[in-house]
Amino acid sequence: MTQRWFGAWFAGFIGSALLLAVTVTTPAAAPVPQGGSADAERDGLFAGYPKSAAFDSIVYSHRDFGRKSKDLMLYATWLVDGDPRVAYQCFASLKGDILTYRDVFNWALQASHRAQLDEPQLESLKNSIKALPEGAKHPPLADLLIVSFRDGETWETRTYDRKKLPDAVKDIYKVTDCTNWYERP
């Protein structure tokens, strides 16, 4: 009797812990709050792109990840054939931790990869971020690269055309070894 009760309690605890972990670690699936700065960004930098829950979740995560995590230095997203339901994402921390994965909206995080930059690579990444030029004006969705980064105490987001990447963006790719930004996957 005790074993059955403990087994049911333990299974319930594990199920709750897994649900909490998925909820906490996948904020990109959360709805974009209405009336906040996400709406302003959606109407500004991302105006003209088709509205969808998947794309709005990307806008939301680019707005909030860096603002909530003071350890995050860089966050980049690009879409498979312009479909925001399948996004490749790359994160870099101030300590040089790199994380990349494919985010299939409301379904899975796939093909994740972690790496650690050494000190020269980390300095190169910081210098490349400082050298980022202004972004492209409304690149086609299929060629869109969204780059958010820490600039002192502020969190900036810019868009680039993957077919016409500035050298600083190419340098970031080389240092982080994120999935190729130059070509469609």
Describe, in short, the structure shown.
With 185 residues, the protein is α+β, with helices and mostly antiparallel strands.
* Arithmetic mean of pLDDT: 76
Given the helix and strand composition, which structural class is it?
Answer: alpha+beta
The fraction of residues assigned to DSSP E strands is 25-35%
- What percent of the residues sit in helical stretches (DSSP H or I)? 25-40%
- Individual helix count: 5
What's the number of extended β-strand segments? Answer: 6
Please write the string of helix (H) and strand (E) elements: HHHEEEEHEEH
Outline the biggest β-sheet. Answer: 6 strands, antiparallel
Radius of gyration: 18 Å
Q: What coarse outline follows from CA principal-axis ratios? A: globular
How many angstroms separate the termini?
55 Å
Order of strands in the sheet with most strands? 4-3-2-1-5-6
The unreliable regions are 1-38
Report on this structure.
There is one protein chain. This protein is 37% helix and 29% strand. The protein has 5 helices and 6 strands, in the order αααββββαββα. A 6-stranded antiparallel beta sheet has the order 4-3-2-1-5-6, with helices on both faces. The longest helix has 24 residues, at 2-25. The protein is globular, with a radius of gyration of 18 Å. The model is unreliable at 1-38 (pLDDT under 50).
Give short descriptive properties of this protein.
single chain, 185 residues, alpha+beta, 6-stranded antiparallel beta sheet, globular
